[in-house]
């Protein structure tokens, strides 16, 4: 399968400030790739390099087989971009903007346009100056989904959308994925990333610190186990078991991914009456890198 986005040792400095310090990432065709990290990690810088708005300082970046800086004009016919804070022409109506933006990519499909306007509940007759932030996002999203682009680069695209529209957004992403299109999604809404993304890259201080499928990332951390036991003995002393607590008959603790098998074997003779295992959420994975909670824990 073709790599739609590929970077190797990508660097960018703003004067003395090193914003990217060797970013390696690969996004395959048909994939929804989640790009997450705290403020200042380098997400926008990476995206602006992809869009040909910034020139890299070093390393390599390829988009759809081309160079995002040299080939910006041709690449922009094949990709769409939605920023987190959409600015529109105040005197044009939403519909005029949609027609203009989609027109840059080819002929507009009127039934697709109407369908998206209905789904996003957007009135295209209003002037852009009267739109709320959420409605401006909708104009950009309708344009992006109506254009038949191979690659969608979305930077916090659903900021300002209410939960119902967030749902519509997620459905649209699933549909474009089914059509074999590729989505690069930077988002701070971890539930959105969890629901949509095939693979995730976590960026911190200009470097990708983790990447993989959610399942792969989950293996880096701990599963929470809640268990009811007939004869609990020395749970605290089991290898790989942490944070043991008890509420009435139920014991709760976290288990290192590589200790799961041994812990289950140790629990069996204690007479398991009920057991529930919860994988870590993306939020917990994120905290592992950025929060105080897990600070100092070695990752293998
Ligand atoms: P993110 O999008 O993840 O919040 P950015 O890519 O905007 O991160 O920023 C990465 C780093 O580069 C930050 O330390 C930021 O302060 C710095 N930076 C971003 N843009 C500029 C700029 N135009 N001039 C100087 N430093 C910048």
UniProtKB/TrEMBL annotation:
**Secreted among keywords:** no
* Gene Ontology molecular-function annotations: ATP binding; ATP hydrolysis activity
Q: Which domain of life is it from?
A: Bacteria
Per UniProt, the keywords (alphabetical) are: ATP-binding, Nucleotide-binding, Transport
The ABC transporter domain extends over: 5-230
Note the PROSITE patterns from the entry.
ABC_TRANSPORTER_1, ABC_TRANSPORTER_2
Protein family per UniProt: Belongs to the ABC transporter superfamily.
Read off the PANTHER family from this record: ABC TRANSPORTER ATP-BINDING PROTEIN, ABC TRANSPORTER ATP-BINDING PROTEIN NATA
Name of the protein in its database record:
ABC-2 type transport system ATP-binding protein
Naturally occurring in which organism (per UniProt) = Desulfotruncus arcticus DSM 17038
């Amino acid at each position: 399968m073709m790599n739609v986005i590929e970077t190797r040792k990508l660097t960018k400095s703003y004067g003395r400030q090193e914003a990217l310090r060797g970013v390696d990432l690969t996004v395959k065709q048909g994939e929804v790739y989640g790009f997450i990290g705290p403020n200042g990690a380098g997400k926008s810088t990476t995206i602006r390099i992809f869009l040909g708005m910034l020139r890299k300082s070093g390393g390599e970046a390829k988009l759809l087989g081309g160079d995002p800086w040299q080939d910006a004009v041709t690449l922009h016919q094949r990709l769409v971009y939605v920023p987190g804070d959409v600015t529109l022409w105040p005197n044009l109506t939403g519909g005029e903007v949609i027609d203009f933006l989609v027109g840059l990519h080819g002929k507009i499909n009127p039934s697709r346009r109407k369908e998206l306007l209905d789904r996003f509940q957007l009135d295209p007759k209003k002037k852009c100056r009267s739109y709320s932030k959420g409605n401006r996002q909708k104009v950009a999203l309708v344009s992006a989904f109506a254009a038949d682009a191979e690659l969608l680069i979305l930077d916090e695209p659903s900021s300002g959308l209410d939960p119902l529209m967030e749902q519509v957004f997620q459905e649209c992403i699933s549909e474009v994925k089914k059509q074999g299109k590729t989505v690069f999604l930077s988002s701070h809404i971890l539930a959105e990333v969890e629901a949509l993304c095939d693979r995730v890259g976590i960026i911190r201080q200009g470097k990708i610190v983790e990447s993989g499928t959610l399942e792969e990332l989950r293996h880096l951390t701990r599963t929470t186990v809640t268990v009811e036991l007939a004869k609990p003995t020395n749970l605290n002393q089991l290898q790989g078991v942490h944070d043991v607590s008890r509420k009435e008959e139920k014991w709760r603790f976290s288990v290192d991914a590589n200790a799961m098998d041994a812990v289950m074997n140790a629990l069996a003779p204690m007479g398991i009456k009920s057991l529930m295992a919860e994988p870590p959420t993306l939020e917990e994975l994120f905290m592992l890198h950025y929060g105080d909670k897990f600070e100092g824990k070695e990752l293998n």
